[in-house]
Amino acid sequence: MSKRVMIIGAIEAGKSSLIKALFGDEQPARKTQALEYWDWAIDTPGEYSENPMFYRTLMATALEAALIVMVQDATRDRNYFPPGFAQGFPQECVGVITKVDHPAADQQRAEEFLRQSIGEVRIFPTSAYTNEGIEELRTFLQEQLKR
Ligand SMILES: Nc1nc2c(ncn2[C@@H]2O[C@H](COP(=O)(O)OP(=O)(O)OP(=O)(O)O)[C@@H](O)[C@H]2O)c(=O)[nH]1
Ligand SMILES: [Mg+2]
């Protein structure tokens, strides 16, 4: 598999924890300082999604990806992506809601935020803590990468 999935989303949205859960790495995630390449995934720092100055870097890195995963933290009360952001990528995008285990999680709100930026694509609710939704997401992503 030469192409990867690129994971984007706000600072502390749970991107690295999600990747670690997908790869079965039980070490806690540390702050992502730069692009991090995994076997079939690319982890990005949250700053790249929050600060438009980095959008060019995201677009350039997307060339190495077959699929973009857009992450929304279920505990956050705002959307950090601009409306229609997924349309800026030639690749397909898929949505992931993180931290659904959290007492302050609001899955429906998170889905509404994601829809504004991603449209009518699949959205996977997940938790890196309980592994809810992780197996399903892993299977889906690996199927997409095989195509
Ligand atoms: N409750 C809960 N907390 C989570 C989950 N995933 C991540 N967290 C917490 O959220 C915080 C941020 O997690 P990271 O995975 O480092 O987030 P990130 O999106 O990679 O952050 P940056 O690298 O700064 O962009 C950490 O304190 C994690 O423990 C989850 O599934 N459930
Ligand atoms: Mg990170």
TrEMBL record:
Keywords: Nucleotide-binding
UniProt keyword annotation of Nucleotide-binding present: yes
Coiled coil: none
GO process annotations (BP): biogenic amine metabolic process
UniProt-listed Gene3D superfamilies: P-loop containing nucleotide triphosphate hydrolases
Record-stated family: Belongs to the EutP/PduV family.
InterPro entries with a match to the protein in the record: EutP_PduV (IPR012381), P-loop_NTPase (IPR027417)
Domain of life: Bacteria
Protein name: EutP/PduV family microcompartment system protein
Record-level Gene Ontology MF annotations: ATP binding
SUPFAM superfamilies tied to this protein: P-loop containing nucleoside triphosphate hydrolases (SSF52540)
